[in-house]
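In the design runs reported in the main text, the only information available to the sequence generator was the tokenized backbone. The following block is the verbatim input for one such run; it is reproduced so that readers can re-run the procedure and compare outputs position by position.
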């Protein structure tokens, strides 16, 4: 899957919080999941971890 070309996602210099590899991308992905549609998400190409950016920010702030 070519995330940069097909979906315009940007590769981040951060590690995935789930698998700790540097395969984390940020952007919008086409999906039918209502909680993720029209939202910017973090996506790990390696382990398929997906979370909305706003939800991830809130999780970081609450710790």
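Verbatim output:
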């Amino acid at each position: 899957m070519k995330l940069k070309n097909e979906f315009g996602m940007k590769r981040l210099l951060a590690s995935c919080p789930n698998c700790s590899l540097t395969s984390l991308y940020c952007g919008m992905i086409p999906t039918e999941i209502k909680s993720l549609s029209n939202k910017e998400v973090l996506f790990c190409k390696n382990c398929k971890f997906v979370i909305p950016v706003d939800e991830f920010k809130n999780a970081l702030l609450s710790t």
